[in-house]
């Protein structure tokens, strides 16, 4: 089917066909309708955390530790954790959810799937 100027019947058929398509919204997209978690408490300044000795740990081991970098989840495209903040279990769960979703990206962790966050080596 083609849509061209002067072919009104084809245009109407095309519009009807588009309206019958299934929704592209998947369960992963629906799951991302949650809000980002509240930030953990800051225990170091951004500068102190950024210049501290760091190491990479598994996401589960990062809970309760201080982030050494800003970690941004896309969507929504804003930092979820900043250097010097305590990484919470809710933050880890949210980042894993974003990383596992088709449109999701996580920046600031050593691995794109958020499994290796950078933490302050205490």
Explain what you see.
It is built from five helices and five strands. The chain has helices spanning 8-19, 27-31, 46-51, 59-62, 89-100; strands at residues 54-56, 71-74, 78-81, 105-107, 118-120. The mean pLDDT is 83. Strand 2 and strand 3 (78-81) form a beta hairpin. The chain has a three-stranded antiparallel sheet, covered by helices on one side. Strands 1-5 form a two-stranded antiparallel sheet. It is of the alpha+beta class.
Short description:
With 122 residues, the chain is α+β, with helices and mostly antiparallel strands.
The percentage of residues in β strands lies in 5-15%
**Most strands sheet:** 3 strands, antiparallel
- State the share of residues found in helices, binned by percent: 25-40%
> How far apart, in Å, are the first and last alpha carbons?
65 Å
Name the average pLDDT: 83
Strand neighbour order, sheet with most strands = 3-2-4
Q: Helical stretch count? A: 5
Count the beta strands. Answer: 5
Give me the secondary-structure category: alpha+beta
- Which spans have pLDDT < 50 for at least 5 consecutive residues? none
Approximate shape: elongated
Q: Secondary-structure element sequence?
A: HHHEHEEHEE
């Amino acid at each position: 089917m083609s849509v061209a100027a002067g072919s009104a019947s084809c245009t109407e058929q095309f519009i009807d066909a588009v309206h019958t398509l299934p929704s592209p919204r998947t369960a992963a997209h629906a799951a991302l309708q949650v809000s980002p978690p509240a930030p953990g408490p800051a225990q170091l300044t951004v500068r102190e955390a950024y210049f501290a000795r760091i190491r990479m740990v598994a996401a589960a081991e990062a809970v309760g530790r201080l982030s050494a970098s800003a970690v941004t989840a896309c969507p929504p495209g804003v930092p979820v954790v900043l250097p010097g903040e305590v990484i919470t279990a809710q933050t880890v769960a949210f980042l894993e959810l974003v990383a596992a979703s088709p449109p999701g990206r996580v920046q600031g962790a050593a691995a794109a799937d958020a499994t290796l966050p950078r933490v302050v080596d205490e």
